[in-house]
Amino acid sequence: MECKQDKNLEQCNCSYDPCPKKGICCECIRYHVRMRQLPACVFPNDAERTYDRSYEHFARLVGEGKV
What we know:
67 residues; 42% helix; 0% strand; globular; Cytosolic protein
């Protein structure tokens, strides 16, 4: 299967520019799950910019109705 990195980048809100996994969703998800995190794309832009990608941060946002 061909990676659609260019197409993925159109919708990627990750603000960490030096990331080598940016736009390669399968690698990004695999990395973040190993770190007990979620990828940037599940967070609203303002929450994503905090770089706190933890499950706990996501749960707080859900509880506050922000996701």
